[in-house]
Amino acid sequence: MNLFEPAPEPPVTATVVVCVYTEKRWADIVAAVESVAAQDVLPVETIVVVDHNEGLLERAREAFPRVQVVPNAHKQGLSGARNTAVELATGDVVVFLDDDATARPGWLRALLAPYADPAVIGVGGVAHPRWPVARTAVDDSGRPATLPGAPGGRDATGELDWVVGCTYTGQPTEQAEVRNLMGCNMSLRREVFKRVGGFAEDIGRIGKNPLGCEETELCIRARQAYKADGREVKILFEPRAEVDHRVSDDRVDWSYLRRRSWAEGLSKAAVSKLVGQGDALSTESRYVATVLPKALIREVKAKRPASAAAVVLCLGFTTAGYVRGKLPGATSHVSLPAADGA
């Protein structure tokens, strides 16, 4: 291959979506939008969706004249904001970037390249945690004791990094098929939303509420729908599509670990109601059986009792939340969005 030849253009066009809700993250929002504009492959449009915050809406419209800035037209929360963007998107693929994440060079190109395969309906990438500076850390990367991980430098993963919306130990290190994507850095063909509807607005984050799993539910629902039509599809994890995800001070303390773990259990119970327990817990079963025990043994051997306790606490609260969520009536409010039949 001629090294001076330009890189091939992606096989699809993209709409990039950044959902925002508070002016407290203004510096992060600006960094996220600017990181999209700095890509070597540009989207056909960038949409910033403001979640029921008039002051932030006005500020964003003034600051980003070349970006489509719109209010959330649906129920308050991340799912409603994403659904608003999906309805407006014109790209072949809808790409979602968190408002506190910045894309690295080459991110969008790497995310779009796998769509050359028509069987691929979704692609997600890596989210590297960027820890708060002024914290007691277990190593020179700044990693806190509440989210343990093996040594490995600035981009090393940890077993509990999903708690702060980042790539965690146990996920693939090379391109591979996965059950679902993580919302911080993910993309889906626009046709998926026409086929199965949008994100379930009865689950997912609203402001600082740590509920989630709306991405998991949508990916499982999409795969089930295509399979029912006799079409085998793929959802891929592409490690070369990288973003840096800022972790705020309040998300590395013990109280957040408990709340987030409990909320994860509740969310998984809601997903189980919508798509079935087998699909909802297939990845989690392997994670609990193989990844967490290794982490616990490593932390105990390294004489890091706080980190070992974090593993036990996380598993305990997640399990308790799931049990609570399975009780009669606990998820009776959860329903699926309608597809348009396309």
TrEMBL record:
<dbReference type="Pfam" id="PF00535">
    <property type="entry name" value="Glycos_transf_2"/>
</dbReference>
<comment type="similarity">
    <text>Belongs to the glycosyltransferase 2 family.</text>
</comment>
<keyword id="KW-0808">Transferase</keyword>
<feature type="domain" description="Glycosyltransferase 2-like">
    <location>
        <begin position="15"/>
        <end position="196"/>
    </location>
</feature>
<protein>
    <submittedName>
        <fullName>Glycosyltransferase family 2 protein</fullName>
    </submittedName>
</protein>
<comment type="pathway">
    <text>Cell wall biogenesis; cell wall polysaccharide biosynthesis.</text>
</comment>
<keyword id="KW-0328">Glycosyltransferase</keyword>
<dbReference type="InterPro" id="IPR001173">
    <property type="entry name" value="Glyco_trans_2-like"/>
</dbReference>
<dbReference type="InterPro" id="IPR029044">
    <property type="entry name" value="Nucleotide-diphossugar_trans"/>
</dbReference>
